[in-house]
Each structure stands twice: as C-alpha cells, then as structure tokens.
Amino acid sequence: MDFDALFNEQLTQLKDDGNYRYFAELERQCGKFPRAANHDEDGVRDVTVWCSNDYLGMGQHPKVIEAMCEAVERTGTGAGGTRNISGTNHDHLLLERELADLHGKEAALLFTSGYVSNWAALSTLGSRLQDCVILSDAGNHASMIEGIRHSRAKKVIWKHNDVHDLEMKLRCLPADVPKIVAFESVYSMDGDIAPIKEIVEVAEKYGAMTYLDEVHAVGMYGPRGGGVSEREGLADRITLIEGTLGKAYGVVGGYITGSAALCDFIRSFASGFIFTTALPPAVAAAARTSIAYLKESEIERAQQRRQVARLRAALDREGIPHMYNESHIVPVMIGDPVKTRMLADYLMREWDVYVQPINYPTVPKGTERLRFTPSPLHTDADIEHLINALRVLWKQCALAHAVA
Ligand code: PMP
Question: Do residues 242 and 255 make contact, with C-beta atoms less than 8 angstroms apart?
Fold first, then answer.
C-alpha cells in the first residue's frame, strides 16, 4: 500500500482549504526578545515577533537563565527517569511547593506540558470517579477536550461563558453523581475572560467541582501572578487550578494545584504522569525562579498592560477592526484563511513583522485572524512600525476590494 499517497491526499486537501500549517523558522536570540532571526529561502534576517506566548519575555530574563545554567551544572541535563523511578529531584518538589503557594493550595503536581496536565488530570478524574459527568465550556482547549474524551465520562457542553446555560445543564443532572465544571480563565484566541465568580457560585450550588485552566493567565494576572482567580480572590473556591510554565513563565511544563488528596489521587492514577520521563531538574529550577520573580515584580505586568493599551488605541485610530476583550490578547479579524496567510506573508516579507496566521481548527472557520500579543519588551517604536505596516496593508486590501 502506498501510505505516502494516502498522507499526501489529506495534506493536499489541507493546502487547498488554506489550512495547512506552515511555520516560520525562527532563531531566538538571547537578550533581544521580541527580535528573532528568521531563516527563509532568502536567507536570515531579523524580525519582530508579535505572536509569542513568552508573554512577559521571561524566557530571556537573566535571573531565569542563571537559574537554569546553575541547575544544569549542578544536576546535568535530564531527569534520568519517570517521577516514580529515580526521576524525582529536589528541584521538582521545590517547584511543586512554589506552585501550591502561588495558588494558595495544599499541593501541586508537575507534568511535562500544560497539554499533558489537562489531558492526564481530566482523563483520570472522568474515568476514576464513578458516573462522573464533565460539564465543559464550548470554548475549551483541545487538551481538555481530549482528556474528557479519553475518560469516557459523560460530557455535557455548555455555551461559552454562559452561566445561565451551565445552570440549566447542571439542574438536569442527578444530585448524587460527581460533576466537574471545566473551563478556562483567559481564552487564548478571543482573549475573553470567564465570569469565574458566577461559574463558581453555580457549581457550588449543585455540588460540582470546578476545574480551571489558567494557562493564559498565570504570571500575568493577580498581585502575585496567580491568575485571574487570584485577582478576583476566588482561588480558594476553585477545586483544581491548572497552568503552564511555558508561556508567561518562559520555560516549559504544566501543572495542577488543589487539595493534597486531589493531587495524590492524580499522581497515583494518571498515566500521563506515571509513564513519562520527568522534566529536567534544570527546567524546574528555572521555572521556580521565574514564578518567584513574578510573585514580587509588577514591572513586567504593568508595562505589558501599557503596550497592549497602546496597540489597541492605535488600531482604533486607524480603523483596523480588532476583537475587544479585557486581556492581553489582540485578535485582528480577517475571516478567510487564504487572506490571513497572505497578510502574514506580506508583513514578514515587506516589514519584518512576524505574526502567525490563525486558522481552523484552532479557531472556527470564517473567524481566521492575526493574533497579536504585545509584551513589555515591545517598544513604542515597535508598535508604531507595526501600525505603519497594517495601515499600508489595510489600504491595499480596501483597494483590492474596490477593484474586485
Ligand atoms: N490550555 C490552553 C488553554 C492552551 O491554550 C494551551 C496551549 N496553547 C494549553 C493548555 C497547553 O499548554 P502547553 O503549551 O504548556 O502544553
């Protein structure tokens, strides 16, 4: 059988639909973020990165780099085993304590990524709690959806951020079955924020546990970077908070926090925790330094808010449509995959601006977009350069429209 022909058939379809994923070949340059070297067929040149999830530039922070280098010298490169078989290092446990403290919880549990933490935790809870029903926000991330699917628990999808719909669905379920309300705080593509208080109140009313993904919020919201749940004083009412070390903290890894019993339960049954090599201790040391730093420092968060506001104001002035939200994510809506790709290519080629086109299935068809994430390290001149580029682009698009 010609397997490559089978693969290529589907790949061609993806390309025809405009949904094939090309990626830029970037080379991050220490200390220069948000600049990076872009390798393409014309050679190597510096570009400004406008779509990084290293939201605060912590991936290049001298203290984080120093912590990682020190730990590599001290512990070597890898963990040497799964967490249960020789792979648990002192640095992992220190990091878990730091994370538990960040969210005011009894315990925390590390995973190799945020994706794995969602997948492992939800699949374990859903499969191990008898007759469990998981109520999942319609906008939830793929890692949560896959975890729920794998658990084979009954799944009920409620309308995105719609507390009334959630309550209607909770009301229909038997009182005595375990229920989990799974949702996110900051949704990554629209940048909208969940009404956490209302969701928690409804969940409490029906005796459901709450599962909150704060991947796009940890490090960035709350006085110590504990996420939107910290900012709103609600962390102690959320049963399980999940986060990543790979975005605002600038390293890699994922985690859950909650009661000691909850973390021990997932530690004991989750295959995504048990059967995989632990994170390198140096990664844990770097992440702990990043978390501890952002618990104290407000400078990065404040400067990021300023740059987000500046970009939004400039887009408004130019009449460039962007989705309004209260987070750091600035989606400029295009609504067509081929056009989105063309615009991104043009920005890279002509303006040395890198922003990845966001297409289906990451976002629904017809809502393709350019997603900008201003960081504290983008200068006012960077914003001006981006706006100049978009102004020219928008004029050309309007012209193309008029001729067509
Ligand atoms: N949850 C959400 C909401 C995400 O957007 C992502 C990744 N973009 C993840 C979880 C997975 O996190 P990680 O990148 O650490 O695997």
Answer: yes
pLDDT of 10-19, one tens digit each?
Answer: 999 999 888 8
Residues 98-127: tens digit of each pLDDT: 999 999 999 999 999 999 999 999 999 999
How far is the CA of 366 from the CAs of 11, 12, 332, 340, in angstroms? 20, 20, 13, 11
Ligand 1 centroid to Cα of residue 53, in Å, is: 10
213 lines ligand 1 (CB under 6 A): yes
| Ligand 1 geometric centre to CA of 246 (Å) | 8
Phi, psi (5° rounding) for residue 360?
A: -60, 140
**Computed from CA positions of residues 81, 86, 90, 93, in that sequence, does the dihedral angle turn out positive or negative?**
positive
Q: For the chain, what's the residue count?
A: 404
Hey, what amino acid is at 357?
Answer: P
Among 212, 244, 371, name the best residue to mutate to test ligand 1's pocket (greatest count of ligand atoms within 8 A of Cβ): 244
How buried is 260 (Cβ within 10 angstroms: 0-12 exposed, 13-18 middle, 19+ buried)? exposed
Which residue reads 């973390």 in tokens? 263
**402 against 63, higher pLDDT:** 63
Beta-bridge partners for 258: 107
Active site residues: 247
- Burial of 70 from C-beta contacts in 10 A (0-12 / 13-18 / 19+): middle
Asked if 283 and 250 touch (Cβ cutoff 8 Å), the reply is no
The residue to mutate among 143, 256, 290, 329, having the most atoms of ligand 1 within 8 angstroms of its beta carbon, is 143
| DSSP character string of 246-269 | SSTTSS--EEEEE-HHHHHHHHHH
Instruction: State if residue 115 touches ligand 1 by the CB under 6 angstroms criterion.
Output: yes
Instruction: Tell me the chain's radius of gyration from C-alpha atoms.
Output: 22
- Whether the per-residue pLDDT at 404 is higher than 90: the answer is no
Residue with tokens 């295009």: 334
Q: How do residues 205-254 score in pLDDT, each as one tens digit? A: 999 999 999 999 999 999 999 999 999 999 999 999 999 999 999 999 99
